[in-house]
């Protein structure tokens, strides 16, 4: 399996790569502005890393999703999830208070979501964000798969494409079962 990690200039990117390595997979890492879209065709799966700012400021991030959502398995983390939502017509909002280095309980809202296979609601996830995807006007082709206890969207998926995202950081030490979630995506 060939995995591409799009690095959105974030210090957590290589923690994701280490998780992939622990699961027996190697990954190629490209910065979000240091490649050509056509070069992604060789990969089977694309992991969109966290990063600072908003998706429109993240190099080719939005273009990658637009170009490959119909043919590749894509998992977005934090900024990556936000980018997925925006590509399909979702909107972001600025949280009243940034959530950085905080663990909150995950409420799984879609028991069929492959990321959460074998897991139950109520485990901790590590959060590092000041933006989130709006739930109230989510496009019909996207489905909320998890929230926090205050109903802030924590995960989503496309209803027909192999495209999903998480707002939290599976690679964070604050997240329980991060390795299991990444494994569920890899080996589905």
From TrEMBL:
Gene Ontology terms for molecular function: anthranilate synthase activity
Pfam families membership: GATase
Keyword terms, alphabetized: Glutamine amidotransferase
Signal peptide bounds: none
Lineage: Bacteria, Pseudomonadati, Bacteroidota, Sphingobacteriia, Sphingobacteriales
Oxidoreductase as UniProt keyword: no
Keyword hit for Acetylation: no
Alphabetized InterPro entries for the sequence: Anth_synth/Amidotransfase (IPR050472), Class_I_gatase-like (IPR029062), GATASE (IPR017926), TrpG/PapA_dom (IPR006221)
Listed name of the protein: Anthranilate synthase component II
Superkingdom per UniProt: Bacteria
GO CC aspect terms: cytosol
């Amino acid at each position: 399996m060939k995995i591409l990690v799009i690095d959105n200039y974030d210090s957590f990117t290589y923690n994701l790569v280490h998780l992939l390595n622990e699961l027996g997979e190697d990954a190629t890492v490209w910065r979000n502005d240091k490649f050509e879209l056509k070069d992604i065709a060789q990969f089977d799966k694309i992991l969109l890393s966290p990063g600072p700012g908003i998706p429109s400021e993240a190099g080719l991030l939005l273009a990658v999703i637009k170009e490959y959502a119909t043919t590749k398995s894509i998992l977005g983390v934090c900024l990556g999830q936000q980018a997925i939502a925006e590509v399909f017509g979702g909107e972001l909002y600025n949280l009243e208070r940034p959530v950085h280095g905080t663990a909150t309980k995950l409420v799984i809202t879609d028991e069929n979501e492959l990321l959460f296979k074998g897991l139950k609601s109520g485990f901790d996830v590590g959060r590092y964000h000041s933006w989130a995807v709006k739930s109230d006007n989510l496009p019909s082709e996207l489905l909320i798969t998890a929230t926090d206890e205050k109903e802030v969207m924590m995960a989503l998926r496309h209803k027909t494409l192999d495209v999903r995202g998480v707002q939290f950081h599976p690679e964070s030490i604050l997240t329980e079962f991060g390795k299991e979630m990444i494994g569920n995506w890899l080996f589905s």
